[in-house]
Known about the structure:
The chain is α+β, with helices and mostly antiparallel strands and 225 residues long. It is built from 6 helices and 9 strands, in the order E-E-H-H-E-E-E-H-H-E-E-E-E-H-H. The chain has a single domain (18-213), classed as Jelly Rolls. Helix content is 18%, strand content 18%. A hairpin with a 2-residue loop joins strand 1 (24-27) and strand 2.
Amino acid sequence: MRRDDPASWVGPIRPEEEDESKGNYRKGFRWQYRTIGSEDWMVQLLPRDPTIWAMTQQLLGEGEVLEPEGVRGIYCTLPSGDHDRGANGCHVDAHPFHLGVVAYVDDVDPGGGGFRVWAGSHRTFYADFDSAYCMEPKQQYEVDRKRLSQGHSIDCYGQSGDVVFWHHRLGHMAAHNHTRRIRQAVLYDFRKKDLVDKQNEPPADDMWKDWSPAVRQAAVEGAAP
Length: 225
């Protein structure tokens, strides 16, 4: 890749440039630079930003959220060029957390590899696991995942600095990038202080029981897809 030549940014990563190490993963159309995630300025940039931190506590409860110590890193999706990337398909993340955020480093145009979500899918997927937060899927999960993947999804494009907040059981994907710009985003997962004690509990009748009173009192619109 050459900084001044957008044509060189088109994926996939060349075989001789692939790296499957966790800290600087590069393969296919993905480049996930995780090593930088432990830098203090990266934490201040997103999860410790006063606005983001205040919004998170409003959603999860004042004083109940673990202090951020590191972010996932910078996740990049390379342009697809003329490559056929296939159909869209959603998934649910495997690690336990409550609230995810995706922040765009650069502008992400429509079709530019933005965070793609299946609206309302969290209300279906929440009951598809044996526990409320761990990756213990029931057989129904794969049935629902295939069904929902064929349905409508939303391309969360935006400008540099825009942030997407999302529920931990929301079906999503890093969308295919059909533009000429690399999609760059910083990701973080907020966790409440009692997550370790509660993560193996079965899904509750009220899926918002661990969220703030403000969220629990909000009106629910629409039915599970």
